[in-house]
């Protein structure tokens, strides 16, 4: 990598729950405008890493830098205001509130841009416009995922953190979610993507990190990881055909 | 002995309040918030006092009648109101407490506002502490038993507890009745110690006191209520010694302490002990199963554990082993205008691995809930293992031999991984509480066997090394694995897996597929709902596709994968 300042940088991150170290000295860099993915087995510490980046857990050691600025001691609300926005695992839409209310909460720090932001996401996700007055809990799983992403977009992210956006979605919807992610990135938003669907994630990403038991064990351009035998064995499965689709 | 004499009143009151605290504890460990404890105590106090004064009955007889009065009141009150949840139950019980107070205030026989006096003072310090010890002993024996874990499961997640076969209605009534009996005991002791009772002593403040004792003491350990009652009863005495006893000070300090406890030691005083490492007790010895089974290839132990389900009939109706385990005919389900299922006809045949796929919102989970008794259907009929399940609660469906997992993981978070699995075995285990109460070794053996069986199943899904960790500490995919283990512990004939591979990568999903195959090979029929098409196509023997509540395809996996409707509605390009 060059001397360019990464938009998001994590340096020597340690996170522990009680006595158990979930993340042990993790470092990663996300360059401006890139799509970086973090893959790994269950319990490897991926979600914990995202939580530390967005300020939901306090790391025991290490730093999180946003555009060169140390945000490690910032509270999560301040990080959101600065453009570090997470789409949580399992969607976490506010089920009893309407679609529109969910979206306006996304614009908490961006009051001035609420109207234009709503217009934008309704154009991007017409299904949400149709259902704006329905409770978020009445949406199907795919619609809820779109809502969760749209809500994050209203916060006008500079870095979008996505935690398993394809989980529990029908194949057609997985396609759709990945299309959305690629569009968001093409429009200039930097994305850090945590995914179990390693094949889809690596196909979409520029750069990938592989995490095992709290540490990065492998990193590189996504295309190289996709062809890496260790990655294929551990995450893509036997009989996996590494040729591009 | 000088200390005992000087502080006799406080020391006895600690025991009496402790008994009341245990009565609160009885409902709290079942996840029910009741504020009727003071009312139960009041009914028992008046009944027993009148029997002593008017009829001159001997004290032991009076105790038995008083305790029964509390228990019966709680049972009769519980029947209608235990369907209420959370704050609604609290309000209903509070209303009951107020009713009892008003009645006592206006009856002649209770002496109205003047109260009843003099009641002979017969309670000695030893009797009071014997009563306290009996309550403590009850809860000490309760926790590791089938009943105790069932109550803990009910508190953690009522729906999941029912799906594991716990009869939640009876369990709640049990907790409520025990609570009434203990409150009654405390009422009898109180009236025969203070020599005077009046309605004001059993009002709202007393109800809140009971809650305070239990919460400050903590519900994490059975010594909690004693600690809470001891601390809060001794506090005014301490204030008197220090010369700070203005009238407003006691309630003010109580409030302050409650705030402090909730903010800084939410687990209460007993939790404080655990935090300091005092209350660490040895775990039941795990079986000799291997540490972490990396791959879920069946071990000899696990084969035995599941085949038991097939060879051991649990119900005469199940013994016939029909070829069709589940039969749905014209099943419909409407959610206020939204049709989730429309004329679904479906048979699940013995021994097959049936895949159920379809877009999000197609009605798959509704179908599963209809089969497992969580959702009543609005039309058509559902038959499981030869039994029509219209109106049958989920725990009865589970008893027929149906185990399931949930799309939104529903673990008992504050139980350990092993305890979760043990609760899953509810259907195939015998009650152990009464035997454990009197220290019969057979009960301990049964509990150990249950734990060992749970460990075998945990080894099978690769979670044995986490057996003692709280379920809440598991990563997402491991939580799903634990749900499968929990369902397997019930040795089901039909296992329903609702999106088990969500949150797993392809390699983990492949391992899961191998596990599902091994389970089926042992004679368990599997219904698998999944979006991981690769997994469905590789393990299922038949696949059914739902779209907008209708079956749009039904056949072997290859056929279904080529079906044009399925490609359009569901698979899209990912199928290629």
Strand content of chain B: 5-15%
Distance between the termini of chain A: 28 Å
Q: Which sheet architecture does the biggest sheet of chain B show?
A: 6 strands, mixed
Q: Note the run of SSEs of chain A as H and E.
A: EEEHEEHEHHHHEHEHEEHH
Tally the helices of chain A: 10
Coarse morphology of chain A: globular
- The main sheet of chain A orders its strands as 6-7-8-3-9-10
**C-alpha geometry of chain B:** elongated
Structure description:
Chain A has 245 residues and is an alpha/beta fold. Chain A contains ten helices and ten strands. Chain A has helices at 46-54, 76-81, 99-106, 114-124, 126-130, 141-154, 171-186, 198-204, 222-227, 229-236, and strands at residues 8-17, 20-30, 35-40, 61-66, 69-70, 84-87, 159-163, 190-194, 207-212, 215-221. In chain A, the strands form two sheets. A six-stranded mixed beta sheet of chain A has the order 6-7-8-3-9-10, with helices on both faces. A four-stranded antiparallel beta sheet of chain A has the order 2-1-4-5, with helices on one face. Chain B is 56% helix and 11% strand. Chain B is built from 24 helices and ten strands. A six-stranded mixed beta sheet of chain B has the order 6-7-8-3-9-10, with helices on both faces. In chain B, α2 runs antiparallel to α9. Classes of the chains: A alpha/beta (245), B alpha/beta (576). The A-B interface holds A 17, 20, 39, 41-44, 47, 89-90, 140-143, 164, 167-175, 196-199, 233-238, 240, 245 and B 357-361, 407-408, 473-478, 499, 502-510, 531, 533-534, 569-576.
Please supply descriptive tags for the structure shown above.
heterodimer; A: 245 residues; alpha/beta; six-stranded mixed beta sheet; four-stranded antiparallel beta sheet; 10 helices; globular; B: 576 residues; 56% helix; elongated
Helices and strands in order:
The complex is a heterodimer of chains A (245) and B (576).
Chain A: E1 8-17, E2 20-30, E3 35-40, H1 46-54, E4 61-66, E5 69-70, H2 76-81, E6 84-87, H3 99-106, H4 114-124, H5 126-130, H6 141-154, E7 159-163, H7 171-186, E8 190-194, H8 198-204, E9 207-212, E10 215-221, H9 222-227, H10 229-236
Parallel strand pairs in A: 3-8, 3-9, 6-7, 7-8
Antiparallel strand pairs in A: 1-2, 1-4, 4-5, 9-10
Chain B: H1 2-6, H2 8-28, H3 37-55, H4 59-81, H5 86-106, H6 125-142, H7 146-156, H8 158-163, H9 168-194, H10 204-217, H11 224-242, H12 249-264, H13 268-275, H14 300-311, E1 324-335, E2 338-349, E3 353-357, H15 364-372, E4 379-384, E5 387-388, H16 394-401, E6 402-404, H17 417-424, H18 433-437, H19 441-461, H20 476-489, E7 494-498, H21 506-521, E8 525-529, H22 533-539, E9 542-547, E10 550-555, H23 557-562, H24 564-571
Parallel strand pairs in B: 3-8, 3-9, 6-7, 7-8
Antiparallel strand pairs in B: 1-2, 1-4, 4-5, 9-10
């Amino acid at each position: 990598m060059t001397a360019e300042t990464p938009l998001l940088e994590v340096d020597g991150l340690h996170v522990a729950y009680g006595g158990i170290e979930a993340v042990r000295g993790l470092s990663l860099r996300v360059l401006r405008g890139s799509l970086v993915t973090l893959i790994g087995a269950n319990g490897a510490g991926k979600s914990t890493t995202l939580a530390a980046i967005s300020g939901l857990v306090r790391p025991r050691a290490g730093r999180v830098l946003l555009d060169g600025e140390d945000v490690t001691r910032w509270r999560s609300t301040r990080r959101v205001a600065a453009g570090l926005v997470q789409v949580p695992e399992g969607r976490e839409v506010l089920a009893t509130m309407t679609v529109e209310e969910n979206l306006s909460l996304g614009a908490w720090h961006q009051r001035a841009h609420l109207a234009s932001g709503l217009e934008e996401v309704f154009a991007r996700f017409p299904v949400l416009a149709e259902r704006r007055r329905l409770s978020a809990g009445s949406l199907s799983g795919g619609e809820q995922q779109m809502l969760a992403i749209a809500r994050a977009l209203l916060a006008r992210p500079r870095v979008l953190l996505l935690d398993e956006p394809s989980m529990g979605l029908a194949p057609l919807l997985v396609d759709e979610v990945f299309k959305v992610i690629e569009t968001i990135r093409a429009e200039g938003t930097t994305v850090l993507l945590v995914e179990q669907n390693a094949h889809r994630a690596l196909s979409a990403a520029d750069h990938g990190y592989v995490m095992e038991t709290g540490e990065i064990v492998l990193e590189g351009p996504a295309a190289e990881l996709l062809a890496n035998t260790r990655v294929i064995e551990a995450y893509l499965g036997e009989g996996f055909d590494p040729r591009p689709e | 002995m000088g200390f005992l004499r000087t502080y006799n009143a406080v020391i006895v009151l600690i025991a009496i309040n402790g008994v009341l605290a245990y009565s609160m504890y009885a409902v709290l460990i079942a996840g029910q918030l009741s504020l009727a404890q003071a009312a139960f105590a009041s009914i028992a106090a008046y009944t027993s006092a009148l029997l002593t004064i008017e009829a001159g009955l001997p004290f032991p007889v009076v105790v038995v009648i008083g305790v029964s009065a509390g228990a019966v009141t709680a049972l009769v009150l519980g029947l209608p109101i235990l369907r209420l949840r959370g704050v609604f139950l609290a309000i209903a019980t509070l209303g009951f407490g107020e009713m009892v107070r008003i009645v006592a205030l206006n009856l002649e026989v209770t002496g109205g506002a003047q109260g009843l006096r003099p009641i002979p003072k017969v309670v000695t310090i030893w009797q009071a502490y014997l009563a306290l010890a009996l309550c403590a002993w009850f809860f000490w024996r309760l926790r590791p038993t089938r009943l105790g874990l069932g109550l803990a499961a009910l508190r953690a997640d009522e729906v999941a507890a029912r799906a594991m076969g716990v009869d939640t209605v009876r369990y709640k009534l049990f907790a409520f009745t025990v609570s009434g009996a203990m409150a009654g005991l405390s009422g009898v002791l109180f009236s025969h110690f203070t020599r005077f009772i009046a309605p004001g002593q059993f009002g709202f403040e007393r109800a809140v006191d009971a809650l305070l004792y239990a919460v400050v003491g903590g519900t994490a350990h059975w010594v909690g209520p004693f600690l809470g009652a001891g601390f809060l009863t001794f506090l005014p005495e301490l204030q008197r010694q220090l010369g700070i006893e203005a009238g407003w000070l006691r309630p003010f300090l109580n409030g302050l302490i409650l705030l402090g406890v909730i903010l800084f030691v939410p687990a209460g005083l007993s939790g404080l002990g655990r935090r300091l490492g005092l209350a660490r007790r040895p775990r039941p010895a795990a079986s000799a199963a291997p540490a972490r089974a990396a791959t879920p290839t069946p071990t000899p132990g696990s084969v035995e554990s599941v085949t038991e389900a097939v060879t051991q009939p649990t119900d005469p109706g199940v013994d016939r082993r029909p070829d069709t385990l589940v039969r749905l005919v014209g099943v419909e389900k409407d959610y206020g205008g939204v049709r989730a299922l429309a004329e679904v006809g479906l048979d699940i045949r013995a021994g097959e691995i049936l895949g159920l796929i379809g877009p999000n919102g197609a009605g798959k989970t509704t179908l599963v809930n209809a089969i497992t008794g969580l959702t009543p259907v609005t039309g058509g009929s559902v038959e499981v293992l030869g039994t029509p399940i219209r109106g049958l609660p989920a725990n009865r469906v589970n008893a027929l031999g149906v185990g399931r997992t949930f799309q939104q993981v529903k673990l008992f978070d504050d139980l350990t991984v092993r305890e979760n699995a043990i609760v899953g075995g509810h259907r195939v285990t015998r009650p152990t509480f009464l035997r454990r109460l009197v220290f019969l070794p057979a009960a301990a053996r049964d509990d150990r066997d249950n734990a060992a069986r749970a460990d075998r199943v945990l080894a099978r899904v690769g979670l044995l090394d986490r057996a003692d960790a709280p379920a809440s500490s598991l990563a997402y995919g491991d939580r799903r694995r634990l749900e499968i283990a929990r369902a397997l512990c019930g040795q089901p004939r039909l296992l329903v897996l609702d999106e088990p591979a969500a949150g797993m990568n392809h390699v983990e999903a492949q391992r899961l597929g191998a596990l599902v195959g091994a389970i089926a090979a042992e004679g368990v029929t599997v219904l698998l709902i999944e979006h991981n098409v690769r997994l469905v196509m590789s393990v299922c023997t038949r696949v059914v596709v739902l779209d907008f509540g209708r079956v749009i395809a039904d056949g072997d996996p290859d056929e279904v994968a080529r079906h044009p409707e399925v490609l359009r509605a569901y698979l899209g390009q990912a199928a290629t």
